[in-house]
Design brief:
Helix content: over 70%
Number of domains: 1
Largest sheet: none
Distance between the termini: 69 Å
Structural class: mainly alpha
């Protein structure tokens, strides 16, 4: 496509015989773009409208996800600090709702609920495999929430340049068709149509670049949260597995903390 446009431009420059063309005043870039947009045909305007809607939607997703990931990161840090300071799991269970934006809370709540069903809320877990499956399920669900609407960013990033290129191609076709009907192969006859057509390609790139950058960044953050979920699940399960009630201890009193990471209700 680039070679075709270059060849067309060379041909038009070589065939331009109007001596007054070189004397034409040069318009300011802003006014020139405004004039080209004003003179754009229905196809170009439709393409630009589609790209504008896509850009607004992608930026809405980007801004919303920035807030979501910022809250998730901050609340995860706070939740881990509270978890490691707590004496019993029940203490965390009663305050976990405060840290709800963190995906770690979903892992804890699911594992703790499974643990309560197994043991009634005290003692070592009876089936550690069931707790591991609960942790994996909760981690997957929390990551699915974080990844929601990211596919739209990928779609916009992949399709916006082609939508813009479609508008450019149709504009060039229309420009050369007008050149043929005019009967004069001059740069002045076709340049306005070609320049108007190229605007859609530039617009497509402007829409695609932020979307693809944001998609890559958010995908990397989702992988990071997935790794943190796995690490936290192992830490939680180790605490449950290694530290249980001592023989003869009253379950209603809970087990004393015997190590920095040992928690039991």
């Amino acid at each position: 496509m680039t070679h075709f446009l270059f060849a067309a431009a060379v041909f038009l420059f070589q065939s331009d015989t109007d001596p007054s063309a070189s004397a034409a005043p040069t318009a300011a870039p802003g006014s020139a773009i405004g004039e080209m947009l004003h003179n754009s045909g229905p196809v170009a305007l439709t393409v630009l409208g589609v790209l504008l809607v896509s850009s607004l939607y992608s930026w809405a997703i980007i801004l919303a996800k920035l807030g979501t990931f910022r809250r998730a990161r901050g609340q995860s840090t706070r939740f881990l600090r509270a978890f490691r300071k707590a004496q019993r799991l029940q203490e965390i269970a009663t305050v976990s709702e405060q840290f709800k934006p963190s995906p770690l809370v979903s892992v804890f709540d699911e594992v703790y609920e499974t643990y309560r069903r197994q043991t009634g809320g005290y003692g070592p877990p009876r089936n550690i495999t069931a707790l591991e499956r609960s942790a994996q399920t909760a981690s997957s669900e929390s990551l699915t929430v974080l990844e929601s609407r990211l596919t739209w960013l990928a779609t916009i990033a992949a399709t916006a340049p082609f939508v813009g290129l479609f508008g450019t191609i149709m504009g060039i076709v229309d420009a050369f068709h007008g050149l043929g009907t005019a009967g004069a192969a001059t740069l002045r006859a076709v340049a306005p149509g070609v320049s108007e057509a190229l605007i859609t390609t530039a617009a497509g790139m402007l829409v695609a670049v932020p979307a693809v950058v944001a998609y890559n960044q958010f995908t990397a953050r989702c992988r990071e949260f997935g790794a943190r979920n796995d690490d936290f699940a192992r830490e939680l399960l180790n605490s449950m597995e290694e530290f249980g009630l001592k023989p003869g201890e009253d379950p209603r009193q809970g087990a004393p903390r015997e190590a920095a990471r040992g928690f039991h209700e």
